[in-house]
TrEMBL record:
<dbReference type="InterPro" id="IPR018321">
    <property type="entry name" value="Glucosamine6P_isomerase_CS"/>
</dbReference>
<dbReference type="InterPro" id="IPR006148">
    <property type="entry name" value="Glc/Gal-6P_isomerase"/>
</dbReference>
<comment type="similarity">
    <text>Belongs to the glucosamine/galactosamine-6-phosphate isomerase family. NagB subfamily.</text>
</comment>
<dbReference type="GO" id="GO:0004342">
    <property type="term" value="F:glucosamine-6-phosphate deaminase activity"/>
</dbReference>
<feature type="active site" description="Proton acceptor; for enolization step">
    <location>
        <position position="67"/>
    </location>
</feature>
<feature type="domain" description="Glucosamine/galactosamine-6-phosphate isomerase">
    <location>
        <begin position="11"/>
        <end position="229"/>
    </location>
</feature>
<keyword id="KW-0378">Hydrolase</keyword>
<keyword id="KW-0119">Carbohydrate metabolism</keyword>
<feature type="active site" description="Proton acceptor; for ring-opening step">
    <location>
        <position position="138"/>
    </location>
</feature>
<dbReference type="Pfam" id="PF01182">
    <property type="entry name" value="Glucosamine_iso"/>
</dbReference>
<feature type="active site" description="For ring-opening step">
    <location>
        <position position="143"/>
    </location>
</feature>
<feature type="active site" description="For ring-opening step">
    <location>
        <position position="136"/>
    </location>
</feature>
<protein>
    <recommendedName>
        <fullName>Glucosamine-6-phosphate deaminase</fullName>
        <ecNumber>3.5.99.6</ecNumber>
    </recommendedName>
</protein>
<dbReference type="InterPro" id="IPR037171">
    <property type="entry name" value="NagB/RpiA_transferase-like"/>
</dbReference>
<dbReference type="InterPro" id="IPR004547">
    <property type="entry name" value="Glucosamine6P_isomerase"/>
</dbReference>
<comment type="function">
    <text>Catalyzes the reversible isomerization-deamination of glucosamine 6-phosphate (GlcN6P) to form fructose 6-phosphate (Fru6P) and ammonium ion.</text>
</comment>
<comment type="pathway">
    <text>Amino-sugar metabolism; N-acetylneuraminate degradation; D-fructose 6-phosphate from N-acetylneuraminate: step 5/5.</text>
</comment>
Length: 237
């Protein structure tokens, strides 16, 4: 695991955006795994800026998002589809049909999960996966206790995650209790991974992820077993 220490959130976001832009321009075709949450917001800002300033072609870029709330569709302001459109997709010239996010309104969620894994396979797998980390060590919505060998699935969110995400809703009660998320196996299949972590509140999870035991109690610890993980962080560990 390579750890890149930066001074602050801004530098972390800029570095990551530059790295992704470099990969996009140097690839004939690329599949990106993309996160939501507070952490990557500024990274998307810089990435859109770099793409537009340099007229970077996006027709060969495909994106698969990590997760979506069950019960929300793209018209809901807290849905991850809405987040991605406003934070990134609407700002760059990526074809709509190249962007994929699990459908949280699917009538058969199990089927939607299986179809999502099939889609990733048909795209040829994920070349570069960007992710954040939750305070309890979750990645995507894989909460502590999630088996390491799972593909995309439905998960019940913990109270900790509901509270952490309540800031995107009017109140705690509005945060959906379930989500569709890529599984840890899906994420580990990505060829390269970049994990972003900013701030003291992530310090404990980050430390355990890097130094601790590989355990399902801390989902992110599985990344110790991946051969190409870069962590960009402003948190001293
Ligand atoms: O970036 P934030 O908002 O701290 O969230 C951390 C993690 O929580 C999630 O948003 C899910 O709760 C993940 O997608 C993200 O990696």
């Amino acid at each position: 695991m390579e750890i890149i220490n930066v001074h602050d959130y801004d530098e972390m976001s800029r570095k990551c955006a530059q790295f992704i832009a470099g990969k996009i321009t140097s690839s004939e075709r690329i599949v990106l795994g993309l996160p939501t949450g507070g952490t990557p917001l500024k990274m998307y800002h810089y990435l859109a800026q770099i793409i537009n300033e340099n007229n970077i072609d996006m027709s060969h870029v495909y994106t698969v998002n990590l997760d979506e709330y069950v019960g929300l569709d793209g018209s809901h302001e807290a849905s991850y589809r809405h987040y991605m459109q406003t934070a990134f997709f609407d700002k760059v010239n990526i074809p709509d049909e190249n962007t994929f996010i699990p459908n949280g309104k699917a009538s058969d969620l199990e089927k939607e999960a299986a179809d999502y894994d099939r889609l990733i396979e048909e795209l040829g797998g994920i070349d570069l996966m960007i992710m954040g980390i939750g305070r309890n060590g979750h990645i995507a919505f894989n909460e502590p206790g999630t088996p390491f060998d799972q593909g995309t699935h439905v998960i019940q969110l913990t109270q900790n995650t509901i509270e952490a995400n309540a800031r995107f809703f009017e109140s705690d009660d509005e945060v959906p209790g379930y989500a569709l998320t890529m599984g840890l196996q899906t994420m580990m299949n990505a060829k390269s991974i970049v994990l972003l972590a900013s701030g003291e509140k992530k310090k404990d999870a980050l430390f355990r992820m890097i130094e601790g035991e590989v355990t399902e109690d801390l989902p992110a610890s599985i990344l110790q077993k991946h051969s190409d993980v870069t962590v960009i962080t402003d948190t001293e560990i």
